[in-house]
Amino acid sequence: MDAIKGKIWTLGNDIDTDIIIPTEYLALKTIEEMKKYAFSPLRTDLAGEIQPGDVIVAGKNFGCGSSREQAPEIIKALGVSCVIAKSFARIFYRNSINNGLLLIEQPDLYDDVQEGGQLTVYKNQKIEYKGNSYPITALPDNLLEIIEAGGLVKAMRKKNGLE
């Protein structure tokens, strides 16, 4: 597996799905239209500053709140390569995998990083930041297959010879 190298964007604890994509923007027709409003209650300019390959590092309980599938879809549409947090809301975690967004739980990294810095993720092994190494738990092969395929539907199409 390839390493992920990205610029860090830090968010706090309890980033709920209403912060990721506020309810009023769910009426827009496409994820592309919605993504420019991502995180707007927290930081109005953030969605426009995130670049493909960037990484979000957050505190505990990322993705809490309602179970809207648009939240991980929008993060992925922004080009975020992965979200690293102390912990994730369980429904958000599964919705993210189903949509092909890599999530990594790591309890210590958030306390050490600075926004704008660079980190490297070695999937299923570790995260490196400023010369320090942070261990991560390996995801099961079946979940990695879903993420690498771009989501559950794409993984099942591939598995069944439809792609």
Give an overview in words.
With 163 residues, the protein is α/β, with parallel strands linked by helices. 31% of the residues lie in helices and 20% in strands. The protein contains 8 helices and 7 strands, in the order βαααβαβαβαβββαα. It has helices at residues 17-20, 31-34, 46-49, 70-77, 90-98, 109-112, 141-149, 152-159, and strands at residues 3-10, 55-58, 82-85, 102-105, 118-122, 126-129, 132-135. Helix 7 crosses helix 8 (152-159).
CATH topology: Aconitase, domain 4
Overall shape: it is globular
- Rg is 15 Å
- The overall number of domains is 1
Could you give the order of the helices and strands? EHHHEHEHEHEEEHH
Which spans have pLDDT < 50 for at least 5 consecutive residues?
Answer: none
Helix content: 25-40%
User: How large is the share of residues in beta strands?
Assistant: 15-25%
The helix/strand class is alpha/beta
Mean pLDDT: 95
- Output the strand order for the largest sheet: 4-3-2-1-5-6-7
Query: What is the CATH class designation?
Result: Alpha Beta
Count of DSSP H/I helices:
8
CATH architecture: Alpha-Beta Barrel
Number of strands: 7
CATH homologous superfamily name? Aconitase, domain 4
Largest beta-sheet characterization: 7 strands, mixed
N-to-C span: 22 Å
